[in-house]
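Now for a specimen:

…
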Amino acid sequence: MTRDQAFAIVTEFVTNENLIRHMLAVEAGMHAYAQKFEQDEEPWAVVGLLHDFDWEIHPDLDEHPMKGAPILRERGVSEEDIRTILSHADHTGVARETLRDKALFAVDELTGLISAVALVRPSKDIRDVQVKSIKKKWKDRAFAAGVNREDIEQGCVELGVDLWGEHVPLVLEAMQGIAGSLALDGRLASG
């Protein structure tokens, strides 16, 4: 599955721009992890891009991402890619076995927290966000309350990376590299 083929699936099933931006952010984080672990970057990025493609049509956790798996099969996504996508949701019962599985789980929730931190900055520019800003907001459980911080921590443990010394800086830098695609480049700032 190429990136272009994966993006065609995303645009076929997703209309919510924020959800598309989330998937682009996870794609960027997965790309960065593939580079870190010296893996083939496109398959890692593709699962990041596709991981929530079915959320709009199956937002119930009892259905997502399992109901999306047959759709992906019909469109030629490999069983290995589908298994990785299923593994990012604990309720599927699909164990995270590979580095790619573990990276997807670790990156997914963190992108939401980083985006939220960028959006509360006056500039609304992710390029102004620093790790210390994320760490400060991390401690405030009311901030971005929907972000499962325990999943992020567990993902780091499974992946064997340090949360603040490796994981957050790597994902933040990856997202900063696509600030325009995430609409976190200051254009949302008022004034």
